[in-house]
Backbone:
């Protein structure tokens, strides 16, 4: 069971990596091509702005799933890291539950927005706007799976303290 | 201090739009719609201009799903309901009065007939953003001047098709980036009513306005259907009336403000160019294929379009 | 409503909830207290928060920085600075500051700058006999110049949230960034006045020319970005993508350090870093929406109303507030949370929004090196394996001079606004 899950996790990570890399490469190429076309050929691709934005949205949220898995999301741990192990466990359960609640809202809201926009087409690309809001459904589900598995480990597994925090806030973003 | 919109448990109507606070749309909302509704009902009205509740698409969706009660969008819904693109076809209206006459009458109701069924929002009144004109950093005096002209337009197929038909190099771009793009020379010009040119400060980085009046930009007072249906008949009556009066007042304000805006822009050094007969005819001719294309894609609209064009101004 | 928002935010943060989720939670708290809870408000604003062309400049500048680093540009910049000032007393300290300024023209993040230069320069200085905390302090305090001189990720975020021109923010950061560099050099001159270590000989003109040529590709980059923005060749987002392709070209064909594998890794890393920033930024759009609906900015304006007639007092007060917040919060979330709350009062007091944005970014950049919470501080400690307390002992003179320069800019806005007028 554990080995199978580990393998699924690795496969999932590889897929996420591939998708976010392709999205970033795609949006870079589109925006660059448009600058080149404008300055050297006095023309442009009208759908470039829109398409690159959609790739960006997908890249951001798929990358956010990967970042959650790797505990990269920004957090303020001044208080948390000074707590005793017992309190840490207590707050870990609370914070994981709060995050799950937010993910439920994101799921429910994106689901409704996706259906509301299914028939709406983006003006330049003709892509259904359900495709844009659909990213919220995918993200909230994937994140919920990660958080639920961690919550189980905190409650029932013989996990160490390192599993308690949702993130170490270690991404070099500032 | 909890002086927020929910105080006292009274129902609050949030009205979202993308106009600056001193634009006729917001003046009319403040001076007519809000006082009328608040005087005659227990409802409260809170106006959010300046895209505070999101860009046009966002607050339109907000009114659709009921998180915002009312909004004054443009014709953003035309992507789903092609009929709503009709009032924005190039040169369909001769001027503001023509547009006002058509939209206030039965043709205006015919245009919005599918809105409630398709999107769950109810149309209350037509108002006006204005007649669109080109602003530019070099003079546009004849068709040839559009060649190689980098024109910013909103990302709407009919607009882009028209810009291309004129011969311009159309760059679709969100409105939030227009100032920087004009300032930097990433684009040479844009098209909007001159009230927008003034309110957004773009005139600081533009030199000419071509009085092309090539398109009419309408706005629509809309309200979420679910919210509407939960109101009492009395409340519905008051809101419908207030919307009509507010829209009519806005139309007057806008007409008056055009001359004022023009004077202001001239004082700021903007030079206005009135297209001569030949230029105007050439632009109208360039728009004809847009109509043919529109008829091909939405044959059911042809009859309505022709009836609008036949209405005398 | 202001208190509902703040209490919910800090309670969630203290419980260990990541900032993005905490922002959504405090929006939920506002919705509940206004009896308008609706999941669509969360989802719609969250997703549309990322659906923004201007914000695409962030992944582009991060990717460009990543490619340059992997392409070997940081090494060449350090070499170049070495040939210029390596031979004077305390030369390596100046090398750090000069290299940081040059690197700031390529990178929009203080953490990236500190990590890249620290990895090269700290071991070099330790080898020359400096105590670890000295080079770490210089690298960290000079690292915060990166987001002040363009490109700058925090300025992009500020511009998008406040609607202020990103190009103008970029241009306005140049002079303050250089001023900070000069301030740091003065402190270092004083600190290294008694140094007696043997110095390497002055480099010959020929050696300087060779190093310049080697670093030329890196030095050209800020020229392209700043020149392109000023000359109206492209928007900030497009400048970012030009930087990407330029760095890719140099890394692949000139320095030949980047192959498909390195490119793929750089893409993944940049995308993830972007996601971390953007996830907070998108969540901040949710809370900004609720803040607006709940009239929180008006409450803030009323609270600060006594100061509105004196822009100077207001600015001083806001700066004190930001320095305090910057001690415990990091740059990105603070900009995203406080900009929509502060902007209305700043405008009402007649303070130039571009100038305010620059001041806010500089202030919060200093927060990156103030204890107890500071990402740049952590990176410095991580590289040198010293404690925060030890680093702060070496750091405080530099930090104080940076705060002094910030105050100088508050009292004399002309230092920012006059060159800005000339640059745009
Ligand atoms: Na920089
Ligand atoms: Na700090």
Residues:
């Amino acid at each position: 069971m554990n080995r199978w899950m580990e393998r699924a996790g690795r496969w999932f990570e590889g897929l996420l990596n591939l998708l976010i890399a392709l999205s970033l490469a795609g949006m870079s190429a589109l925006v660059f091509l448009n600058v080149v076309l404008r300055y050297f050929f006095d023309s442009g691709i009208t759908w470039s702005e829109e398409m690159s934005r959609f790739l960006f949205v997908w890249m951001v949220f798929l990358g956010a799933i990967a970042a959650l898995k790797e505990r990269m999301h920004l957090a303020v741990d001044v208080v948390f890291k000074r707590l005793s192990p017992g309190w840490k466990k207590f707050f870990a359960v609370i914070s994981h539950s709060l995050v799950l609640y937010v993910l439920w809202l994101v799921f429910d809201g994106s689901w409704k927005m996706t259906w509301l926009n299914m028939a709406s087409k983006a003006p330049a690309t003709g892509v259904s706007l359900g495709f844009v809001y659909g990213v919220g459904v995918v993200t909230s589900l994937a994140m919920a799976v990660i958080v639920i598995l961690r919550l189980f480990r905190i409650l029932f597994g013989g996990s160490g303290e390192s599993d308690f925090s949702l993130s170490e806030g270690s991404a070099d973003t500032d | 201090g909890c002086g927020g919109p929910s105080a006292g448990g009274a129902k609050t109507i949030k009205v979202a739009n993308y106009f600056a606070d001193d634009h006729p749309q917001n003046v009319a909302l403040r001076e007519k719609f809000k006082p009328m509704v608040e005087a005659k009902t227990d409802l409260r009205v809170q106006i959010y201009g300046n895209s505070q509740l999101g860009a046009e698409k966002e607050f339109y969706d907000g009114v659709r799903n009921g998180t915002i009660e009312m909004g004054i969008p443009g014709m953003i819904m035309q992507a789903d309901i092609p009929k709503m693109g009709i009032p924005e076809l190039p040169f369909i209206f001769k001027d503001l009065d023509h547009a006002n006459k058509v939209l206030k009458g039965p043709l205006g109701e015919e245009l919005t007939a599918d809105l409630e069924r398709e999107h769950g929002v109810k149309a209350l009144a037509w108002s006006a953003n204005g007649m669109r004109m080109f602003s530019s950093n070099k003079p546009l005096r004849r068709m040839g001047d559009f060649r190689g002209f980098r024109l910013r337009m909103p990302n709407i197929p009919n607009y882009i098709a028209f810009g291309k038909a004129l011969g311009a190099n159309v760059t679709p771009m969100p409105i939030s980036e227009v100032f920087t793009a004009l300032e930097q020379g990433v684009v040479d010009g844009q098209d909007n009513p001159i009230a927008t040119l003034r309110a957004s400060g773009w005139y600081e980085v533009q030199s000419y306005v071509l009085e092309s009046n090539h398109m009419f930009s309408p706005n629509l007072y809309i309200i979420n259907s679910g919210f509407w249906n939960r109101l009492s008949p009395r409340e519905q009556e008051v809101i419908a009336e207030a919307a009509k009066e507010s829209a009519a007042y806005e139309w007057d304000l806008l007409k008056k403000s055009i001359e004022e805006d023009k004077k202001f822009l001239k004082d700021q050094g903007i030079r206005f160019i009135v297209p001569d007969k030949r230029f105007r005819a050439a632009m109208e001719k360039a728009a004809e294929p847009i109509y043919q294309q529109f008829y091909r894609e939405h044959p059911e609209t042809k009859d309505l379009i022709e009836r609008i064009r036949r209405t005398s101004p | 409503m202001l208190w509902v928002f703040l209490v919910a935010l800090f309670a969630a943060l203290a419980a260990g909830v990541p900032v993005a989720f905490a922002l959504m939670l405090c929006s939920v708290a506002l919705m509940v207290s206004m009896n308008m809870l609706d999941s669509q408000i969360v989802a719609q604003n969250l997703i549309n928060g990322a659906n923004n062309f201007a914000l695409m400049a962030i992944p582009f500048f991060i990717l460009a920085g990543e490619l340059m680093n992997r392409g070997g540009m940081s090494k060449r910049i350090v070499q170049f600075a070495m040939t210029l000032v390596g031979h004077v007393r305390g030369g390596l300290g100046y090398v750090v500051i000069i290299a940081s300024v040059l690197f700031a023209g390529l990178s929009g993040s203080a953490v990236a700058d500190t990590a890249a230069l620290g990895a090269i320069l700290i071991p070099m200085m330790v080898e020359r006999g400096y105590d670890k905390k000295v080079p770490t302090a210089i690298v960290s305090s000079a690292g915060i110049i990166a987001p002040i001189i363009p490109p700058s990720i925090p300025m992009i975020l500020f511009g998008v949230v406040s609607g202020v021109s990103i190009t103008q923010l970029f241009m306005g950061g140049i002079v303050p960034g250089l001023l900070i560099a000069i301030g740091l050099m003065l402190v270092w001159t004083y600190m290294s006045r008694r140094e007696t270590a043997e110095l390497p000989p002055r480099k010959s003109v020929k050696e300087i020319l060779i190093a310049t040529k080697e670093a030329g590709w890196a030095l050209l980059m800020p020229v392209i970005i700043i020149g392109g923005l000023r000359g109206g060749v492209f928007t900030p987002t497009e400048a970012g993508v030009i930087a990407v392709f330029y760095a890719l070209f140099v890394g692949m064909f000139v320095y030949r350090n980047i192959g498909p594998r390195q490119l793929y890794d750089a893409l993944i890393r940049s995308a993830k870093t972007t996601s971390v920033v953007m996830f907070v930024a998108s969540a901040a759009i949710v809370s900004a929406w609720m803040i607006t609906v709940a009239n929180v900015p008006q409450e803030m304006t009323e609270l600060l109303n006594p100061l509105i007639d004196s822009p100077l007092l207001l600015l001083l007060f806001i700066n004190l507030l930001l320095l305090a917040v910057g001690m415990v919060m990091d740059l990105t979330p603070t900009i995203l949370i406080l900009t929509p709350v502060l902007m209305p009062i700043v405008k009402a007091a007649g303070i130039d929004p571009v100038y305010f944005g620059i001041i806010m970014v500089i202030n919060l950049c200093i927060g990156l090196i103030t204890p107890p919470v500071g990402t740049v501080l952590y990176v410095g400690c991580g590289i040198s394996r010293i404690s925060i307390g030890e680093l702060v002992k070496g750091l405080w003179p530099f930090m104080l001079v940076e705060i002094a320069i910030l105050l100088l800019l508050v009292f004399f806005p002309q230092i920012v606004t006059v060159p800005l007028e000339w640059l745009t």
Summary: The longest helix of chain B spans residues 233-267. Chain B touches chain C at residues 1-6, 14, 48, 52-55, 58, 61-62, 65-67, 173-174, 176-177, 179-181, 183-186 (CB under 8 Å). Confidence is low (pLDDT under 50) at residues 1-8 of chain B.
